[in-house]
Every structure is written in structure tokens, then in C-alpha cells.
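Pinned message: reference record for Thymidylate kinase
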Amino acid sequence: MTSRGRFISLEGGEGVGKSTQVKALAAALEARGISCLVTREPGGSPGAEAIRELLLQGEETRWGAQAEALLFAAARADHVEKTIRPALEQGRWVLSDRFVDSSLAYQGGAGGLGIETVRSINAFAIGEHFPDRTLILMLDEGRDRAMERDRDASDRIGGRPSEYHHKVETAFRLIAAEEPNRVRLIDASGSPDEVTQRLVAALGDLLP
Ligand SMILES: Nc1ncnc2c1ncn2[C@@H]1O[C@H](COP(=O)(O)OP(=O)(O)O)[C@@H](O)[C@H]1O
Ligand SMILES: Cc1cn([C@H]2C[C@H](O)[C@@H](COP(=O)(O)OP(=O)(O)O)O2)c(=O)[nH]c1=O
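Predicted structure (C-alpha cells):
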């Protein structure tokens, strides 16, 4: 019987290097003979990608806090069912650019619903499928990089004020302190290669 793969999520605020690193980490793991599926949230399955459009486009006032949290959770339930669980059952590792901790930090910590409320909505959505390890990239200049990358095209959530994004970062630190075995804070400064090495080191105990 094939053993179940590992589930890893990359987290952090805007522009800290998640999309760059999720691909680099997959390449580093593939080089060690580990078959990886790279995915992202919101999205990662056809249904969840459709919900992504609803969440990220349109007016800031399009959704209230509760509806926004539930839409992220609905997208996540579909992502787990259609993409993540089948890959893990095939023995592949799944690397996701954002997952449940983004909801805890953005909707829970910054959006005012509270981390525990958002955790309970998501417990229903994902069941036992919490990541085996969550790596949170920390970088002070992340938002500057995101603004440089997006110019005037930031999305409904990325375009929220700096106060909101500061609360997101505070919430990520809190989550890491609460769950030190699953969640690790990673210094995202330096070259892309240096960051990838730190990520691989933070998976040391999970590697075959
Ligand atoms: N280590 C790095 N040093 C300098 N620039 C980087 C580094 N990693 C990523 N970037 C650049 O910073 C911007 C944000 O990176 P990205 O991977 O898109 O972040 P995120 O997915 O977290 O929003 C991109 O333009 C990317 O090319
Ligand atoms: C997955 C997820 C994302 N988000 C937000 C974070 C981002 O602002 C936005 C889209 O994510 P993403 O496309 O990853 O943006 P970026 O590359 O700038 O980090 O959705 C939440 O608010 N809650 C969630 O559960």
C-alpha cells in the first residue's frame, strides 16, 4: 500500500514570496525523489477557482465578514475534496500557496470575527485535513514588493489598509506561538535560494 503523502502549506502576508517559494520548494523536494502537487488558495479546484473570482473581484463591500469567511471555507472544502485528498491518497506531497491559516489570520484576526470562530467554520470544511506543517514567511518589506508587483491592480483583500495587514501579521505570529509543532515562522529575507534552504530545513523531521 502506498503511504499517505505529506501536506505542507506556505503562508504569510502579501508579497512575502509564497508563490516563488512554493515552486522552488517543490523543485527541491522533487530532486529528493518526492512527487509533489503544487496548488493554491483561494482556488486549487475548478469550483474553488470560481469562488476565487467572487472573493477577489468587485467592490470591497461586496461581502460582509461572515459571508467572506464562509466563501473561503466553501472554496477550501472543494479544494480538499477534489484536489488535496486524492493527491495525498496517491502518496504525493501537496504544497499549497495559502490554506486555512490565511482565513484564521485575515478573516479571524484582521477581519474581526476572531480566530476561534473562523477555526470552527473551517474544522467543518476540512475535517482532519490540517497541514502536517505550515511555513509562514515573514518579511517586513513584503507589502512594498506586492505593491510594486500589482501596481494599481491589487485585489479586494490585498487593497485593504495597512492597519488590516498589520493585524494579519500579528495573527500569524499568534497562530505560530499556539501551534509550534505544526506551524513555523520562516525569515523570508535574502535571496530566493536562501529562503528555499530555510524551508527545506524546517521540513527536516518530515523528510523520508
Ligand atoms: N527572495 C526574493 N528577493 C527579491 N524579490 C523576490 C524574492 N522572492 C520573490 N520576489 C519578488 O517579490 C514579488 C512578490 O513575490 P511573490 O512570490 O509573488 O509573493 P506572494 O506570493 O507571497 O505574494 C515578486 O515580484 C517576486 O518576483
Ligand atoms: C486563502 C485566503 C486568502 N485570503 C486573501 C489573501 C490575499 O489578499 C488574497 C489572494 O491571495 P493571493 O492571490 O495568494 O495574493 P498574494 O499573492 O498577494 O498573497 O486572498 C484571505 O483573506 N483568506 C483566505 O483564507
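Pinned by admin. Summary line: The chain has one domain: 7-202.
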